[in-house]
Automatic annotation (TrEMBL):
Keyword annotations: Transferase
Keyword Transferase applies: yes
GO molecular function: CoA-transferase activity
UniProt keyword annotation of Transferase present: yes
Top-level taxon in the UniProt lineage: Bacteria
Organism: Roseivirga misakiensis
Taxonomic placement: Bacteria, Pseudomonadati, Bacteroidota, Cytophagia, Cytophagales
The protein, known as: Succinyl-CoA--3-ketoacid-CoA transferase
Similarity section: Belongs to the 3-oxoacid CoA-transferase subunit A family.
């Protein structure tokens, strides 16, 4: 089996160049590639197009790269927790493509599956439909949406082995597996890196064939976007 382990995030992202297109896994702040994002901030890569469910918050996740003006364009579905994102959008500094969440997920999945386009009813009759082909199926109007692919996919898993097989936990499984399939080069950071053969084959969510580099991350914060409590 091929050993795909690299030493750390800085080595893993060393060849991500300016103006690259990135997919960044996670759902909200759950299961995001924290170490890879921090390494990109240190590296100072600019002109990035980021495909992600969200834009992080002001001081965490993709928000860190927005703060340092490294992101040229965001392709996302939920961006409501980031004041700096809002400021850059309204000032015209940041190009933004907002996509219905299910459509975003399917466009990424299509990219990984080699499906160049598909029809969906989501967004018909709204600004989302502007400039897109419309066709009727079973009495309902649908939009033609194209696949999404990326130069690099940055994903975060709970466990992985040195051949790149990945296991995700809970909500982190929402976008990470499909993004792992849609990147030309997929970089995985994991909470626990084990030897090949230690993972139960029946529990693997992403086979190692989709992963080119893997490393064990460190110092995960695992933030909560909106903490809600009650008085007992």
């Amino acid at each position: 089996m091929i050993n795909k382990q690299v030493s750390n995030a800085d080595e893993a992202i060393h060849d991500i160049a300016d103006n690259s297109t990135l997919m960044l896994g996670g759902f909200g702040l759950c299961g995001i590639p924290e170490n890879c994002i921090a390494a990109l901030v240190r590296k100072g890569t600019t002109g990035l197009t980021c495909i992600s469910n969200n834009a992080g918050v002001d001081d965490f996740g993709i928000g860190l790269m927005l703060k340092t003006r490294q992101v040229k364009k965001m392709i996302s579905s939920y961006v409501g927790e980031n004041a700096e994102f809002e400021r850059q959008l309204l000032s015209g500094e940041l190009e933004v493509d907002l996509i219905p969440q299910g459509t975003l997920a399917e466009r990424v999945r299509a990219g990984g599956a080699g499906i160049p386009a598909f029809f969906t009813p989501a967004g018909y009759g709204t600004e989302v439909a502007e400039g897109k082909e419309v066709r009727e199926f079973n009495g309902k109007m649908h939009l033609l949406e194209s696949w999404l692919k990326a130069d690099f996919a940055l994903v975060k898993a709970w466990k992985g082995d040195k051949s790149g097989n990945l296991v995700f936990k809970g909500t982190a499984r929402n976008f990470n597996p499909m993004m792992a399939m849609a990147g030309k080069i997929t970089i995985a950071e994991v909470e626990e890196l084990v030897e090949v053969g230690e993972l139960d084959p029946n529990q693997i969510h992403t086979p190692g064939i989709y992963v080119q580099r893997i490393f064990q991350g460190q110092d995960y914060e695992k933030r909560i976007e909106q903490r809600t409590t009650r008085i007992n």
